[in-house]
Write a structure and sequence with these properties.
Elements: H1 2-6, H2 23-53, H3 67-89
Length: about 120
Amino acid sequence: MLGIAANPFPKEIVPLIPALQNGPLLTIHVSVMMLSYAVLTVAFCGAVVYLAQGGEGKRRFAALPSADAAGDLAHKAVMVEASRCWGWGLRSARGGRTARGGGTGAGTRRRRARW
């Protein structure tokens, strides 16, 4: 099973693409990605506690935070990550248009995004 899983990986070592050979940019990239994983981990843990407590207004386990507090934490963490994604990550190379189809200047027509 391990041999099948390791087979698709390339055997030779290739250098990083030129965009990632810049040390400071690579550091910023890795730092932002680690922060993203941390925020999404907090959101996941909040959602698990919410489900474990049984939903709104319920409290099954006294040692865990209430479902309301866990739900609020998960919601805030998702909103932080969503604002980061919509602000930085989903811009296309064509004129700064977002994935939702909006333009950057006044008078641009709203079009449906084509994935």
